[in-house]
Every structure is written in structure tokens, then in C-alpha cells.
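Take a record.
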Amino acid sequence: MTTERHNITWNGIQIEILYHPDTSPAFRRSYGQPLDHLEVRSLAPEREPLPITETGYLSQFYARNVIEEAEGPAALVLAWLEYFAQSPIWKAKQISRQQLDLFS
């Protein structure tokens, strides 16, 4: 299978998701299902931190059933973003980013 490209916008941030299906024949033979690879990258603003990555880039491998149960790569990433955006750490970072810094 070929790489799929998905583009989403979350909280005004343009995000690209690259979905690489069936990346490991050995995993498929051992576990009876494909191992898929997701790359998530914030495009605009470029390298904008996200609740799932401070660098604006994330690479994760998942068994196919995880992606299917989420109803696809874009839905899975949106669910991650919404879930981790509720964390106290992310909320604190967002507040500090919105406050003016008088000393810099």
C-alpha cells in the first residue's frame, strides 16, 4: 500500500498526517495484522507545539486494529489532540504562551 496524506486543522493549526500502512511484514507474520506508521507534523505555524508533541512532529507505530477502531488516521490524531489538550501541563503551557512577558 502507498502512503496516505491527510490534512486537518486543529485550533487554527494546520497539521499533516502521513499514514504508512503495513510497514513490517515480520510484525504481520508474528501477530496476524499489519503494523502501521503515523507521522504527525504541524505545518502552519511550522513546528507549532501540539498537545501530543512539543516539537510539532510525532512518529508512532500502531497495530492496524487501533487505527481502524479510531475510524482512520485523521480521526485518531484528532482524538489524541482533544484528549491531551485537557492535560494540566498543556493548559498551563497555553496560558503562559498567552501572557505577555515584560522581561524579554
